[in-house]
Structures are given as structure tokens and as C-alpha cells.
Amino acid sequence: MATTVKHEIGSWDTFHNNGPFPTKVLYETLLEAKGNMPSITDRYNDAAAEIQRLIQLALSNREGFRAYGSAWSMSHIAHQKDNMHFNTAMNLKRTIDVDELHPNATYVRENLFFFECGNIIKEINQFLFDNGKSLKTTGASNGQTIAGCVSTGVHGSALDVGSVQDSVVGINLIIGAGIDDIVYLERHTRPALNDVFASRIKARIIRNDDLFKAALVSLGSFGFIHGITVEAENRFLLNRYVKRISKDKALQLAQTLAFEDADFVVEGETDAGGKPLRPYHYKIFINPYVNDTEYVVEAMYKKPYRSGYPDPVPRIKTAIYRDLILLFTSIAERFRNSIPSLIRLLQTSVLPPVDLQVTGTIGEIFWDAGYQGPAYACAVGVDSRDSPKALELLANLAKNEGPIPGLYAMRFVRQSDATLAFTRFPVTCMLEIDGLIWNPQRDNIISLPQFCTRIIEVLQANNIPFTIHWGKNADWSFPGLIEHMYGANAQQWKECRSALLKEETAALFSNRFLQDTGLSEYIVNAPLALAASVV
Ligand SMILES: Cc1cc2nc3c(=O)[nH]c(=O)nc-3n(C[C@H](O)[C@H](O)[C@H](O)COP(=O)(O)OP(=O)(O)OC[C@H]3O[C@@H](n4cnc5c(N)ncnc54)[C@H](O)[C@@H]3O)c2cc1C
């Protein structure tokens, strides 16, 4: 039997210390030992029964229950005051058997994999590599769990690929303690797995595009995500370059993404006619305090996999243009205890020298997180065509109403069809601001909450449609914020959630974050057809 360790913790915090938050109980469920229960499916179903026991306990006590992964989200999205469940010991993973593919599936069976919620990206990368495959995209580093990534919409800067949730083709949710409360969701227009698979995990199948899209970026609130079916692809390599280019050119590319017609040419990354190739990944790093004529950009080009390339990890370990917070802390190291001195440094210095060129797999390039202390991160999504204007506005905000200790970056991500995906524009530019947490009184500068509020006000005042990364710092209680960002999709999400969950389980899987955003609203009359199979 899976066993659960219970800790009465009193308070809980995120990986980057964005709390602490008062919390009664922390659970951690450990799988039955392989030796005692050799079948992966048996161990998986055994863990599901244990999660249902915990859910029943919370329901009986009229308390909340929330799963979380690596606690890498910097908002309070993962927090629940009553019961939190730490998932990373629930990390079963498997391929899909021949008899489990749906007859109408358009997927290649060998590309489909089933991961239990607590698998972190690093172990998924290794498992897929061992099977000759790769994730299509990840974030800039590899410590998040798969369920955490999907629940908040984690992205890299893969302009034509999308975010982590865009590779998901099935979701196994535990939505209550009853026999009918293990469900497996798929799109009805793109089924992947059949009833044999569902019966093996004792799930009721619901094939419904709208429900699937709502549950995809679920903010932890559609139930306990127990497992996720992911579409991978063949292993590939990325040639990674970090270059200084003129600010105008960098921003023009941000706006148009017309790489093939631009004069941004990386030696060796051209077609037979000498035209620039379109990169897989494009990212811009910006110091908002220096009127530099050049920006640092990171570009990556996708190549077929080959063995025998030099081990990139020693170089990646020392590379600083990987993750914005890593770049920032590398610069800030000496001034960590003096924010005013740090800001003076930012105001007078250009970004450090660029990293060397390197080639590797997704797992080698988007590697371990290099910084583990207190930090904040704000990230707004705008249409890539609006990105230069949005950057100008938010850089001016930092200069005129700050200064705040932070650097900026821009990443670019293809549109997602998840109902509440913040990557909702044809190509979304994620404009990020990362830095060290400061003390507004001691340092005599605007507070982080005030700065977050001003980001929203400035974008609204300038009529720039935007979204905000669910796992980052923001003024989540800003009046009308969710409707402003998502319009009718917000209502659709609430209706789908209300149709799938009973009122008491909707409350169970809710938290303060959901209340702050207004998304906890239960629509009593939501049509039940929203949670029924379409075919
Ligand atoms: C160092 C660092 C680097 C980062 N880089 C990126 C990046 O490159 N791109 C990017 O987009 N973001 C990035 N982020 C943000 C972070 O990746 C996301 O917020 C992500 O959600 C964190 O995953 P997690 O496993 O830590 O999830 P958590 O933060 O633990 O949880 C996130 C949400 O998922 C829910 N959840 C988790 N597991 C389950 C489950 N089994 N069932 C139901 N709900 C569940 C939680 O309730 C919560 O709502 C970074 C953060 C850090 C600290």
C-alpha cells in the first residue's frame, strides 16, 4: 500500500521564499515498493486509492486540499491553508502499450508517454532520452513537476512550438473520493488512448474538447491531477548562441519574428541560398536602466540528433544567459545585501560578456536552476507585435517609479488552445522582470505589490491587451483583472469546472489564489453536458 507521511507544519513557503503562508498539514504520499508490487499500473492505482482516502478525510473535516509540485511558482497559487500534498514521490512513468491506442488516434504510439504528476522535468528528459525521444519544449530550467508545469502554463521561448501543456493529450484527474471520481480527459476531436487504457487506471473517460481545454491550465483547481499523457518527439539537438545585436534589430525581430527576411545572420545557420534559418528559440535580455544601443539575445536552432557531440554540460553550468534570475543574481552577487548599491550598479553597467556557443539536447541546454535564494518574478504576456511598446512602457515604469532591483527579458511562445493559457496571442511575447526581493521601507523604494499593480495600470492605460503568468508575482486581486485578460474564456472555465466538480469538491480544490482572482465562483446551473463526453 502507498503510505502517506503527515507533517503538521504551521507554515509553508515557495522555493524562492515568496511566503511564508500559514498551513496546517503537509502530506507526502510514498508509492508501494516495487518489490512488493511489481506492476506500474497496480502501484499507480494503489496511489490513487491513497489520494482518495486523503480527499475523503479533508471532505469530512470540511477542509481544503491542494496538490503541489516543486513549489517553484512565486504566486500563492500552490498554497492551501488546510492540507497541502507534496507530489514528487509520485513519479511513475511508462510507455503506451499496443492495445491502448485509440483506433482514431492521429498520434504515433511510440511518441506517447504517461507520467504520474510528481515527475520532475529533469527525470522526464532522461526517461524520454532513454526511449529515443524528447519533450517538445520546457521552461528555462528543469526542476518543475509535469503537473505543476501544465497547471500554470510553463513556457520556454519556442516560438513555433508552444508551452508544456500544448503537448498534453490526456489528463487523469481524481475529482473526489467516490468510485466514479477518477476521470480521464481527452479532446474528442483528437483522441489518443482507448477504453483499455482507461479501465487499467480505473478511470471514466470523458472526451470533450472544451472540458479538456479548460482542465489543461487548471491552476490546481480541477481536482488532483494524477497522471498526464504527453506527446513527445524524436530526440533532437539545439545549437545555442548568445550574441549582442543592435537594440533596433532585436526589437524589430521581436515585433515581426520574420527571421528569414532579416539581416540577423548566425554563421552556419543559413539555408542553401544563404538565407537565415528560423530559430527554434529567441530570447532577449535587457537592462532597463541603461540606454544601451545593443541587447544580448539567445538564439537556438533545431537539428536532427546525432551522437558524439562534445558534452555541453560543463559549459552550460557556467553559462549565465540561461535563466533571467540566474543572470540577475550573477550580476548582483556582490551587492545582495545592499539594494541601493545594486541599483546603482545596474544604472551604470552593461550586461556581462556573452556565453560561448554550445550544442545539446533539450535536457542539457535547459538545465538545473542556478539560483535558489529569495527572488521575485513578474511576467506579462503581450501580442508579439505589441512587444517593443510594452517593453518601453514597463522599462519606463521601472526607471520612473522604481528603481527596482531587476532585469528584463522577452521570450516568444506560440498560441495555446487552453482556455486560460496566458499564451493566448498568435505569438505571445512573455515580458519578464526578475530580481531579488527588497524591503521597500529600508530601501526607500516602491514595494513589489505596488509595482505589480502599476504594471497592470500602465498596460491598461495604454490599451495593450495582456495576460500574466499564473505562477509569478502579480496583483492577483486587481478588480476585474481576469475578465480583462480572458473575457468570455474566464466564464467558460468556471462553467466547465462547476460542471465537472460537485459544489463541495469545488470548494475543496479551491484556495485563496482562486478567491482573489474570482475564479473560485461555482456556477450552480452550469450545464452538465459541459462535463460529458461529446462522442
Ligand atoms: C528557478 C525557476 C525557473 C522558472 N522558469 C520558468 C520558465 O522558464 N518558464 C515558465 O513558464 N515558468 C518558469 N518558472 C515558474 C514555474 O516553473 C511555474 O510556476 C511552475 O508551475 C512550477 O512548477 P511546480 O512543479 O513547482 O508547481 P507548483 O508551483 O508546486 O504548483 C503550481 C500549480 O500546480 C498545481 N499542481 C501541482 N501539482 C498538481 C497536481 N498533481 N494536481 C493538481 N494541481 C497540481 C498547484 O496546486 C499550483 O496551482 C520558474 C520558476 C523558478 C523558481
TrEMBL record:
<dbReference type="InterPro" id="IPR010031">
    <property type="entry name" value="FAD_lactone_oxidase-like"/>
</dbReference>
<dbReference type="InterPro" id="IPR036318">
    <property type="entry name" value="FAD-bd_PCMH-like_sf"/>
</dbReference>
<dbReference type="InterPro" id="IPR006094">
    <property type="entry name" value="Oxid_FAD_bind_N"/>
</dbReference>
<dbReference type="InterPro" id="IPR016169">
    <property type="entry name" value="FAD-bd_PCMH_sub2"/>
</dbReference>
<dbReference type="GO" id="GO:0016899">
    <property type="term" value="F:oxidoreductase activity, acting on the CH-OH group of donors, oxygen as acceptor"/>
</dbReference>
<dbReference type="GO" id="GO:0050660">
    <property type="term" value="F:flavin adenine dinucleotide binding"/>
</dbReference>
<protein>
    <submittedName>
        <fullName>FAD-linked oxidase</fullName>
    </submittedName>
</protein>
<dbReference type="Pfam" id="PF01565">
    <property type="entry name" value="FAD_binding_4"/>
</dbReference>
<feature type="domain" description="FAD linked oxidase N-terminal">
    <location>
        <begin position="48"/>
        <end position="178"/>
    </location>
</feature>
